[in-house]
Amino acid sequence: MDDVTVLSTNDLDVVDAQVRYINAEWRDRAESPRIGSRETRRANTSFQSIKVHNARPRFEAGEINLDQNGFTLSSNRATVTDYRDDDEVKAKYHPQMIDLVKRETGAAHAFVRGHLIRTENPIDFNDGYARFVHCDYNMTRIHEMAHDLFAEQGVTPNKNWKYAWYNTWQPFDNPAHHNPLTCIDWESLPEGDVIDYYYTGRGNDSKVAAPVYNPDHRWCYFPEMSTEEVLVIKQLDERPGRAYYCPHVSFDNKSVSEDLPPRRSIETRLVAVFED
Hints:
Layout: E1 14-22, E2 34-35, H1 38-44, E3 45-54, H2 56-60, H3 66-69, E4 71-75, H4 86-105, E5 109-118, H5 142-153, E6 161-171, E7 181-184, E8 194-199, E9 206-211, E10 219-221, E11 229-237, E12 248-250, E13 265-275
Parallel strand pairs: 2-8, 3-10
Antiparallel strand pairs: 1-3, 4-11, 5-13, 6-11, 6-13, 7-10, 7-12, 8-9
């Protein structure tokens, strides 16, 4: 763990926050919103007050897992020296995340789609901390995305393969004091709350998903994540009886000192393969 002064766990058990949700009016519309800039985000989302719960006690009691809740905590000692060097990240970090996802899920194979670096100095809107509640993919595209990635990597899928998509999220340089990531516990997420939207940043027009506000959503986070801890998030899963969405967002954590350093993190997106 990093040698820093932090608040006690009890101080962080429940944090009040404000996060943007897609406006509920979109639930009843035939079309879906398109978001890819600050302007479109402001036009299609609104702030809602939430309570964010410390997930560490439940995790330590064995009550948090990917298939039941949609997220879990893992560990990784990264060997990357420059996270802004894509070649180094691909060579050193991607294999670590492949091994981590296989270890956490029991998958036979895993393939990295890509990674994102987020810091206090984003290049543009799409590079900044996540500022509205969203999922990264849409269940209707689970096979399409997997097969596109296999084609890029020269992989021939077998007929008995089943797919699940995951994100890994790890702080670097500093613990995640400010702008930590929080997730909705799948057990508190009615499937009807999740609607389609289109991500249009950087020339994309990709169908993804996001929930509308529901006061019954249970928000969870791991306070003060160290640079050796990894948040694993379930994004999609075609296997029945399991969580398959984990909406998430960063939040302004006002329970920590403003003097603490900013959050810097690396996120990878992977497809895991299970042999049926």
